[in-house]
Every structure is written in C-alpha cells, then in structure tokens.
Design a protein that fits this description.
Two copies of one chain form a homodimer. Chain A is 74% helix and 0% strand. By secondary structure, the first copy, chain A, is mainly alpha-helical. Chain A is elongated. Chain A starts with 7 loop residues before the first helix and ends with a helix. The first copy, chain A, binds a DNA duplex (18 and 18 nucleotides) through α3.
Chain lengths: 193, 193
DNA sequence: GTCTATACAATGATAGAC
DNA sequence: GTCTATCATTGTATAGAC
C-alpha cells in the first residue's frame, strides 16, 4: 500500500472522538486532530469537507443501502415489508465496531448543537432516500412519506436501544421490536376513532 | 424609536436574500451583506449567531407556537385534533409577508446544501417540540412521534403549496388539505392489510 | 441598548513540491 | 497521498461611541 500509514480516515475518526471527548468540540482545532492522527490540517481537509464530517463518515453509504434494500424486496411485498427490507439493509450496512463508536458519539452530540445539526441532516437524507424508494414501489407519495418516517424512527430508536446493550443482541432485532411497536401504536390510533 | 434606522434584522434579511440570489451564498461575504444593509460585520454577528441564521430568523418562535397550540387544545380533543391544533398555531404564527420571502428562499435552499442543513435542523426542532407536547397529552411517546411526523409533513407541504398560489388562499387551508390527505393515506395503508 | 473599530483565532481553500 | 505556505472568510472578544 506504499509510503504512508494506512486508514487515515479511521485514525482521524479515533483522534477526533478522543479529543472532542476530552476537551470538547469547540476547543479542539482541526490542526490538533490532524496532528494527533499523525497528519496535517491540509490532509484532514482533503479527506473530509469539514470538521464535523469526520464523525459522520460512512453515513452516505446508508443512503444507498436503504434504497438497495427496498429495490431488492420481492415484487409482491406489502408496504410494511418494503419498509422492513429497507431498514434491514440499513442494519446490514453497519460495521459492528459502530457499537463502540456510537456509545462515544452520543455524549458528543448531546453537548454540541453543531454536531446534532449534521446528524439531523444525515437522518433526513436517509428518510428522503427511503421515501423516494417507497414512492417508486407504492405509487403513493404520501403513503411513502408516512412509512419512511416510521421506518427511520424505528431504525434510530432501535439503534439507540441496541447501543445500550452489551453487543450480544443483533441490531436488526432491536429495530424489529421498534417496527412492531410503531405498527401497534399506529393501529391503536385508528381503532380509537 | 431613536437614533438608528429601525429593523436591523429585517434589513439584513432582505440584503442577504438579494445578494445570495444574485451572487450565490458562498460568494456573498458577511461583510458585504452588512454593508448592503447599512451596517458593519460586527453588528451583523451581534444579531445573528452565524451567516445562515439571517435567513431563518423567527423560526424559533415556531417551536413555541406549536407547543402552545397543543397545550391550548380542549381537554377532550382526539389525537388528530391535537395535531391540528398544533399546526394551526404554527400557521397563525406566520407573518403574511412570508409568502414573498418563501418564494425567494426556495431556490436558495435548492442551490445551497449548507442552507438546507439549517432548514432541516429547524424542521427537526419543530417536530421534536410537537412530539413532546403530544406525548404529554397522549401519554404514548410512539403515537406522539408518528403524529408529530404527520403534522409537520402536512405543515411543510401545505406551506409549499400555499407559496405556489397567489396569496388569496389561507395557509391553514392548504395545511388542512394535507392533513386530510395524510389521514386518508394512513387509513388506506391499514385497510389494505 | 444599539452600533462601530480593531484585533484575533480558527476554518477551509488553493498552489506547488515530494 | 502528503506536506508547506499562504490566503480569504467566518465568527469572537474587547473596547468604546452615541
């Protein structure tokens, strides 16, 4: 692989998490992160468009994954099955070491609005992608919107629950639990009319 | 009102829209916006935390409005009525001149991911506020989440439709149409099971 | 209570060398 | 792919003017 230490992005991620956790996001300069990873500021910004993006690398793959999941679903799949195919593909796209990264990321997001803003934007990109894929299959854009919201909610809350666990459970199981719970909540909402 | 031209924020808003539209967001410096509004860069940043916030001033009032709407709803209101109370309050919080501002804002958002990110964050803040208010009334956080998503969807799409019109229709009418359409889409989703 | 002047640290872009 | 160097711009901080 040549002259340099491999996995510059991974090293920058670990450096950023460590320094943000220790000193806070604002007090940690990009130059310091780069130096901690054995690189320079210039190189950091060649790999990432901005400082926040260090923490969210790989999320763009999730947009592709959720669409691929829906597209690959059987032709006769019901709406709820399409959603589940999408979020299952999302779960499969996870490297398992995200179990550890996620636990460290959480307090950083809680402490830093700037990072929450980026996280929200990523979530919204996933939602829009799922919505588009569902609309293609269902023909009804409003049904697609509703289902996309549920699917992404189930995914994020399933992810949060899974992160709190010890890692012995599968992410998809947590997400399936959430999907079922939302299905039930939605049904109750209609039955009470 | 005293020694200075009034409505510094409004002047900065108009200056920003005009210059962003003409030269693009990136090519327009904060100093240029300030000068165009008859102010200095220092003053601009006294009014707004960052450059993007110029365009989204007032959105924080929407967070308070949506909560107030739900809180003020009758004690025996059904879930759907709580949602409608929240988004109706959102609509009432609008100054009508937003009809014009919105039309100019739209192409800017389309052209500038940075601005879309901020817009997404504001939408998310409204959603979370509505979700919290609904959870307080309903007791069920998952129902609250589902309903908050529908309500905010209806509001944003109603707003988009209203903006395309000539201004003779009321915003709330557009939003009500969307609420009804989502209600129907949701019902179809369940009946097809 | 709002504005301005000045100085400053940090982000992120750019150009050219290895 | 990385580095040095330089640069415009953002956003902050301080001090003071009206």
């Amino acid at each position: 692989m040549g002259r340099w230490e491999p996995d510059a992005r991974g090293r920058l991620l670990r450096a950023a998490i460590e320094l943000f956790t220790e000193h806070g996001y604002d007090a940690t300069t990009a130059a310091r992160i780069a130096a901690h990873a054995g690189l320079t500021k210039t190189t950091l910004f060649r790999h990432f468009a901005d400082k926040r993006e260090i923490l969210f690398q790989g999320q763009d793959a999730l947009v592709a994954a959720v669409v691929a999941g829906v597209v690959a679903a059987p032709a006769d799949a019901a709406p709820a099955e399409l959603v589940r195919a999408g979020v299952a593909s999302l779960c499969a796209a996870h490297a398992d070491d995200l179990h550890d990264v996620g636990r460290l990321l959480d307090p950083l997001l809680a402490a830093t609005p700037e990072l929450r803003e980026r996280a929200t934007f990523k979530r919204s990109a996933i939602t829009e992608a799922l919505e588009g894929a569902l609309a293609d299959r269902l023909g009804d854009p409003r049904q697609a919107g509703l289902l996309a919201d549920v699917g992404v909610r189930a995914y994020y809350e399933g992810y949060a629950a899974w992160m709190l666990g010890d890692g012995s459970n599968a992410l998809l199981d947590s997400v399936d639990d959430e999907l079922a719970a939302y299905e039930s909540a939605s049904r109750r909402l209609h039955d009470d009319d």
